[in-house]
Structures are given as structure tokens and as C-alpha cells.
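Moderator note: this is an archived Q&A kept for reference. The question asked for a predicted structure of one protein chain; the sequence and the answer are reproduced below.
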Amino acid sequence: MTKQIISVDIGGTHARFALAHLSAGRCIGLDKEITLKTADFASLENAWDEFSRRMNGNLPRHVAMAVAGPIHEDVIRFTNNSWTICSSHIHQILQVDDVKLVNDFEAIGHAVAQLDAAFLEPLCGPNQALSDDGVISILGPGTGLGVAQLWRSAGNYRVQPTEGGHIGYAPLDAVEQAICARIHSRYNRVSVERVVSGPAIVDIYQALAEMDGFSAPAEEDKAIWIRGLEQSDQLASAAIDRFCLALGAVAGDLALAHGACGVVIAGGLGFRLRKCLLDSHFAERFIAKGRFESFMAQIPVKLMTHPQPGLFGAAAAYAAGMS
């Protein structure tokens, strides 16, 4: 027997909606998503009304919702948009029977647990499926750095969201020391997401410019990413390569800390960096853990390729709660 629910994924820039189909404690599919810009709507309720209008008001009364931020407070505020959500009243506001609310990276963890292996593309390490017994470390650079753990055993699984993006960053060479020095001049400490996140490319780029003897103008991170990925700016491309090195090192550190038997890189930025990650020294930095190099070399590292992991993961989290 299948159940239909509404899956929602809310970030700083976009709110995504789709009908999801559940069966036997798993998400078995999504309908085509509807994506709205959060800046175009004063609140979640207004965006929900637009989604309902586009669906001709014919909506299920059960909702799974992933939000980009901590969910332990009753009032949830977003970093990059003006919306607030009162978790204890959200089902009344949306006029539905129930709402399953999860952190965005908790949703990604459920997606990894339930997605077909075809959506997990090899990045480095052994070309084998992720183990069904043990811990999988999941991380994804975006506005910040999301981190979660997936534990699986005897056909069961559990997702643990974390604040792993806020552990301290360890520079490994003079270039990374220069990057950290630049960041440290503005903040009390250098966390890993200050170096491994979308906005971090600005500091990496400007630090490389200073090392080359000139000062780069202030600009938004998006412009640097575009030039670097298009390879129209040699310095921007070098900054992206540095970013990939740092991501490899951080992924390896988290795998060691979690006792992981596999690692998944998730999120839209990670997916756009696929070729860069493969062409860079990401793999070498991942295993460069001194006495544990041979151990690290046995860990498969995958890239998630599902186009809507947040929507799928929110629905998967709802389904898992049904079983």
C-alpha cells in the first residue's frame, strides 16, 4: 500500500515542493518539483498558497519538510531569508494533519540510506557499494558545510545530524596557512566551513592573489565560481583546486572521527564540482592521514547525483517514521 505526502525543502534562496510516494517505510518516488524563490514571498504560508494554487488545491494532508538550520527551537529562523517557522503551529498554518520537520542534512542522510546505489557515483577509494553495516560520513558544502552520520546495521538505519562544519580547520601547507591567516584576521577561529563552503572561495581567491603580489577586488563568491568552473580566470580555477584539496582533507578527518566505512559528498555545489574533484588531488588529501593512509585508502568515497536530495530525503525521513 502506498501513501502520498507533500515533500518540502526550504533553503535560503529557494523553497521546493513535490508530491512524494511512500511504501513499506521508504520513499519510492517524487513527482516533478515546483521551485519558488523565497525572496518573492513574505512567508512560508504565502509560498505554500502559491504551490497549492499551482496544484489546483488538490493536496495530501501530510507533509515532510527539510529546513536549512537547527530545528530544536520552536521558532526557526533562516540565515538567508526573512521567513520564520513556528514548528508547534506549522500544521495549523498550512492546514494539514501533520508535519515531519527535519534538518536539511538529516534529510540528506535519509536520502543516502534509501536511494538506489545508481545515485552514488564513485569519487575515490575502492569502486564498491557502501557497506550495509557501519557508519557513513555525509558532508556537503553550500552556504555552510553540512555534516551528518548514517549508521546502518541488520537492515536498520539511524541518521545523526551534527554541527561538524564548526570543528576547527587544520592547514596542511603554507598556502592554507595564508588562507587561514586571512580568515583569522576577521574571526576568532577558523572552522572548516570558513574554508570549505561556497562563500569561502572569496577568501581562497584573495589569499592566492596576495601571494601572487596583487590585491583582488571585493566581489561575490558566485562570480568567482563561474569564472573558475568556466576556466576563464586562471586564479579562480586555482582557487577551486585549493577548495577541492581542503574538501578532501576535511572529508578524511570526518571519516576518521566518525569511524566511517564510507563517505558521501552531497549537495548542489559538490555535484557541480564533480569534474574538478576528479581532476584535483582530492583523493590524495583524503587519504593523507599519516599512519592511517593505508586504512583511508580502503574507504569508498561517493558523490550523490540525485537532482533533489533534500526533497527525497525529507520524504524518506517521513517514511522511516512510519515503519
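Archived answer notes: The mean pLDDT is 94.
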